Amino acid sequence: MKKPTSSLLLIFITSISFFTNAQGQTIDQVIKPKESLAHFRFLASDELKGRDALRSEIDIAAKYIANQFWKYGAKELSNANGYFQPIPFRLSQPPQSALIQLDTSLLKHGDNLLMMDGGSLKGKFELKIAGYGLEENLKNIDLNGKILVTRVGAPGKTNPAEILELGRKKQQWAKGKGAIGLIEMYHLPNTPWGLLTNYLNKPRLTIAESFDQPSSIPYFWVKDLDGKLMHFIDQNKSVKAKISIESKGNQLIKGRNVIAKIEGTDAQLKNEFVMLSAHFDHLGVGRVDAEGDSIYNGARDNAVGTVALINAAQYFAQNPPKRSVLLCAWTAEEKGLLGSAYFAENPLIPLDQIIYNLNIDNGGYNNTEIITVVGLGRSTADPLIKEAINHYGLKTIPDPSPEQGLYDRSDNVNFAKKGIPAPTFSLGFTAFDEEIMKYYHQPADEVDSMDLEYVMKYWKSYLLTAQKIANMKEQPFWLPGDKYEAAGKSLYGY
Ligand SMILES: [Zn+2]
Question: Domain Peptidase M28: where (predicted)?
């Protein structure tokens, strides 16, 4: 291979910056401050009451985003419901009261008992122990009219996310075998009972199986750290549980992601999609702050990212890149990354056609000379990200506090797990310091406390980055050794 002469190199470098400059100028012509800020002020307004996925104002936000996608010329997906992907959510409410009497032990909700799910129930019921309550444990046992008693989690599955996911499955399996309830004995020392039950003992949103009204059997956790209760039941097979629950029951909530696409210009590459995503929900109305404000506007988190998607609809509809662009505004991120999780499991575009996910989400900023890209240093698209951000006179830094696990705490992770390279674009932060905490998940997170000139540069950097990646010659991929590299290879068949 011949080394390029310095003059060739110079031509090469100037041609890169020539393209970047031309694209940057087009972005300047299309994306105007007043128009973008009008979207921003609307989405972060008090009238939308903090865009809580459990409040009706979330529908106003969703419709607004859909209308902007339509106005600017982004298209509906043929397998969606207009610009929407409907999602069945289930809201589980803590019971008014729940008591279980087991011989001489009285178990009380909020104390040594936690009712996780299900409706009212009263009576005396037979108990049946079956290991961890996994499908193989339930094969040859009769659960009809009985309460299934199991250990929480499964061997090797002991972290909170795993045991919650597994618990919901056990509940379905038990119900399928005719059980009228499920008790999981909690014995895990690594997550304290008090911490976990405090977190869980409030209304919780999860993804439901379907849009049918949820019907589920009562499901409990019982504190049994030393295993004594489990042992007692095992030794006294005839003991019955006297149960009394007054429950508010569960509620079906209809949620929606907002989805649109812009077709690419290249006959081949248009079958590949660069997914641009941002969650549009926030925390709603809550605790009053020192100023008497109780509306969590979520300007930084994440109206600013939502406007980046609206700007992308406007810019790319007029300037489509070679690859197609998929615009995804997720609901219910703040309830546990639910909207993106639903799409990852029910994708409207096959996941192996989505070659990259440029997510945008924000806690806040403490430095207006940089943009922080959580996940920088993990894919082959990095040089393009830096080039685009550099065009606006800003520097790119990676996640400054990897110990916070931000990469695995935002919507991007639902796609990274599937193998799609998926960084998150964020306003410049160098640490989770006092300046960030002033606004992070606070009522003070409002448009007027932000540096709007910086916000304009931030929006434009996002567009230029997206454009470069959508025009990349090679498909971007994980750098060797990344923990999601194997998932990527299996997704794309490398
Ligand atoms: Zn966020």
Answer: 257-453
Cα(237)–Cα(232) distance, integer angstroms: 9
Residues with a beta carbon under 5 angstroms from ion ligand 1: 301-302, 361
C-alpha 355 to ligand 1 mean position (Å): 23
Taking the centre of ligand 1 as the mean of its atom positions, its distance from the CA of residue 278, in whole angstroms, is 8
Distance 373 CA to ligand 1 centre (A): 14
Architecture category of domain 30-89+254-492 in CATH: 3-Layer(aba) Sandwich (3.40)
Residue 154 has what DSSP assignment? B
The segment(s) of the chain belonging to CATH 3.50.30.30 are: 94-248
How many angstroms is it from 378 CA to the middle of ligand 1? 21
* Residue 221 · residue 186 · CB < 8 Å: yes
Strand pairing report for 273-279 and 324-330: parallel
Which residues make up the CATH 3.40.630.10 domain(s) of the chain?
30-89+254-492
Handedness of CA 158, 163, 169, 173 (dihedral sign): positive
Report how far ligand 1's centroid is from the alpha carbon of 301 (Å): 5
Distance from C-alpha of 311 to C-alpha of 327, rounded to nearest angstrom: 11
CB atoms within 10 A of CB 50: 24
| Tens digit of each residue's pLDDT (9 = 90 or more) over 6-25 | 555 555 555 667 778 888 99
Instruction: List the alpha helices (DSSP H) in 405-451.
Output: 412-416, 434-437
> 81-137: per-residue pLDDT in tens?
999 999 999 898 889 899 999 988 899 999 999 998 888 899 999 999 999 999 999
Decide if 426 contacts 410 (C-beta within 8 A).
no
Judge contact between 457 and 392, C-beta under 8 A: yes
CATH of domain 94-248: 3.50.30.30
Per-residue model confidence as pLDDT tens digits over 256-291: 999 999 999 999 999 999 999 999 999 999 999 999
Question: 413 C-alpha to center of ligand 1: Å?
Answer: 13
- Give the Å distance between the CA of 362 and the centre of ligand 1: 5
Structure tokens at 295: 């509306």
Which of 417, 416, 425, 439 is CA-nearest to residue 356? 416
3-state secondary structure of 235: helix
The pair of three-digit structure tokens given for residue 17, joined into one six-digit string:
């910056």
Q: For the chain, how far is it from start to end, CA to CA, in angstroms?
A: 27
